Every structure is written in C-alpha cells, then in structure tokens.
Amino acid sequence: MHFRIDQWRAWAPGLDSTDDWLAWSKAPERLLDGGEQPDVSFLPALQRRRLSRLARMIFQVGWPLAEGHSALPLVFVSRHGETPRNLAILKDLAVKEPLSPTQFSLSVHNAIIGQWSIMRGDTSEMSALAGEGDGLEMAVLEALSFLAEGAPAVLLVIGEEAQPQPYAPFIDDVPFPYALALLLTPGDDWSLTLHHGQDPRAAWPHPLSLIQGLCLHSAALQHSWKERQWIWSRKSP
C-alpha cells in the first residue's frame, strides 16, 4: 500500500503551527487542556455556533488542506466521537428532560462530515469510521480505496476530544484533545504494511506518533494494536 502525504496539519491545546509540533515532538509530554477553542473564524458566525469543539478541531485542520479542491473525498475517523454531546443527552434522559432534536442530530458519528459537506458545498464520497486504537491505519485503507478508484486526492481527518469525567476510568487512549488532517495523493513516498503478532502499545496514540514521525522525518514507524502491527515506511530522498 503506497501513497504520498502531500500536506498535513494538526491541532492540540497550545499546538497549532508546524514549529509548535516540532518542539513537542522533540520532547513529547501530556498537555494541559484549558478548554481552548480552535480558530474557525473563516466560517460565518451562524455556522460556527453549531459546531462542537471536536468539529471545530476537524474543521481547523482540514479546511486549509481542502482549499483549491472543489471536490475532495473525505475520510473522518474518531474512536470516541462526540462523547460530550452524547453524555449531555443521557443526562437529559436521566432527569426526563425533553431532548433537543438539534443536539441529537449533531451527536451521531457522521454529523461532522455532514456539516463539512454542507458548508463546503461538496458532495464527494465521504466516510465516517469508528475504529479502535489503530483507527488511523483503518482510515488510510479507506482513503487508499478512493485513490484506487481514481480520486486524485483524499482528505483524511482524525480527532479525539477530551473525555468527560464519568468516562475517564474506562478511556486511556486520549492523553489530550488532538486533531490531524492528511492530504493523501497517489505516489510511493510512504508505504503501509500489516503484520501479525503482539507488541507493546505505542507510547502515544497512533496519530500523535505519526505527527512526531513527520516532524522528525523518521524513516519508519511501528504502530501495534492487539495482534496487528502496522509498519509505516518512508522512501529515502
């Protein structure tokens, strides 16, 4: 499986620019989340108000990469999705409060790509995936299927929001909120291969490990999840 990462962009609290991520990659650490909101001032105010923070994260990293593409297939992946919205709905149910149709419609897993399609006026094929710890690699497979069908480029966006406190004992794979966008095109700069076996989990979630590899120009990365070993290899210049 070969492809090219034409462009990438990432966001986390306090980390926005490539220089920010390079500094983090050299000394990675957990970030304090002060509730910072990604800058989506490029959207009209009425549209911004409907976006959750996870949606804002996805739009902030993905929108610049989509500029200049009138039609761009998109793959969105998140293991936990709109957990804060869903918890708010569950709390309303618990006290027998009437549910907001808008809240419900925006809590489903494909709501973000629906909002993306509407705001960009793009009716290209789009997928919303809910993977496990190797959701990034599953999303790459989905994106490569679009390239194999003739798409000149595919936008892959992945993000995880900070998890509400009731879920904290059960979710250990979101050290801090983050989002990553990759613009994938045909090429052989990168290859992704799957092997079977059991290795220790990576120190960081796969998207953060990939960002570190991109910043440090790593020649190879190994991401393990359960019995799946994913090897990312970069072609030498």
Sheet having the most strands: 7 strands, mixed
Helix content: 25-40%
Q: Total number of β-strand segments?
A: 7
Cα-to-Cα separation, first versus last residue: 19 Å
Q: What structural category characterises the helix and strand content?
A: alpha/beta
User: What's the alpha carbon Rg, rounded to whole Å?
Assistant: 18 Å
How many domains would you count in the coordinates? Answer: 1
The CATH fourth-level homologous superfamily: Thiolase/Chalcone synthase
The number of helical elements comes to 8
Task: Provide the low-confidence segments as ranges.
Answer: none
Q: Per CATH, what is the topology?
A: Peroxisomal Thiolase, Chain A, domain 1
CATH-defined architecture: 3-Layer(aba) Sandwich
How large a portion of the residues is in β-strands, by DSSP E? 15-25%
> What is the mean predicted local confidence, pLDDT?
93
How are helices and strands ordered from N to C? Answer: EHHHEHHHEHEEHEE
CA-based shape: globular
What is the CATH class name?
Alpha Beta
Main attributes?
8 helices; 237 residues; alpha/beta; globular; Peroxisomal Thiolase, Chain A, domain 1; 7 strands
Brief digest:
The chain has helices at residues 18-26, 45-48, 53-66, 83-94, 101-105, 111-120, 135-148, 206-216, and strands at residues 2-11, 74-77, 126-129, 154-160, 178-196, 220-225, 228-234. By secondary structure, it is α/β, with parallel strands linked by helices. Strands 1, 2, 3, 4, 5, 6 and 7 form a 7-stranded mixed β-sheet that branches.
